[in-house]
Write a structure and sequence with these properties.
alpha+beta; 5-stranded antiparallel sheet; 8 helices; 52% helix; elongated
């Protein structure tokens, strides 16, 4: 009986067992994608709400595809109805978008009864995601940001700063330098740099080293996509 229902994959109104199997398979494969995301995501981009979205979006996609079936009219109607809904969620990390597309692809594949495509695609995607995570480009969260330092005028030069940061930063680009006068008529020189920390380097180590430089008045390091500010 079950085999008979599952063979009805080309009808406009699939049998109950076929729909149920499709939705359960879509959810099961989406759990694999969600676990992969959970295990391979490093840094502040991880979100439990996004994790739930990865597991639920394939079900919605499969339902929409099965509701459309082979009807062009229904497809155009759903396209117009869904166009009314505006999704304003911003993804700062392109990797999150790829995982969401992978989850939607599972739902679409299951919705058109492409079970083999959904299963093989999920396994290959997860395997490659773990491979990239374990590779040198995925083991560490590379921190990019801006470094601002203020020194008493004449107590330090640009070369000294760059030599100090060389052992901590993979890249260090000079941005700007300016001189200001405080209320006590003390002149301060401000240096600004774009930096990328070396893999495995702790932000606190760089901050503490810069704080010990002679003439230092303040150090501020802001990292992109992070909620951390050292100052």
């Amino acid at each position: 009986m079950v085999d008979y229902f599952l063979l009805q994959t080309s009808s406009e109104n699939p049998a109950f067992m076929a729909v149920l199997f499709t939705l359960l398979l879509a959810f099961s494969l989406s759990v694999v994608i969600a676990v992969t995301y959970y295990k391979t995501t490093v840094g502040p981009d991880f979100s439990t709400s996004f994790l739930q979205a990865l597991m639920l979006s394939p079900i919605v996609a499969a339902m929409i595809i099965q509701a459309i079936g082979d009807s062009v009219a229904i497809g155009l109607g759903l396209l117009g109805a869904l166009a009314v809904i505006r999704f304003r969620t911003n993804f700062k990390n392109p990797r999150n978008i790829i995982f969401l597309f992978a989850a939607l692809a599972i739902g679409i594949s299951c919705g058109v009864f492409g079970y083999t495509i959904a299963i093989v695609g999920t396994l290959v995607f997860s395997m490659l995601a773990f491979t990239l995570y374990l590779s040198p480009i995925g083991k560490y969260f590379v921190a990019n940001g801006t470094m601002t330092l203020r020194f008493l005028e004449g107590t330090i030069d640009q070369k000294k700063i760059e030599a100090t940061t060389a052992s901590y930063c993979e890249r260090c680009f000079f941005k700007a330098m300016r001189t200001t006068t405080t209320t006590e008529e003390t002149k301060l020189t401000t240096f600004e740099y774009y930096i990328r920390l070396s893999p495995g380097t702790l932000e606190q180590e760089l901050f503490e080293t810069l704080s010990t430089l002679p003439g230092n008045q303040s150090v501020r390091i802001d990292f992109e996509n992070q909620n951390e500010t050292f100052s």
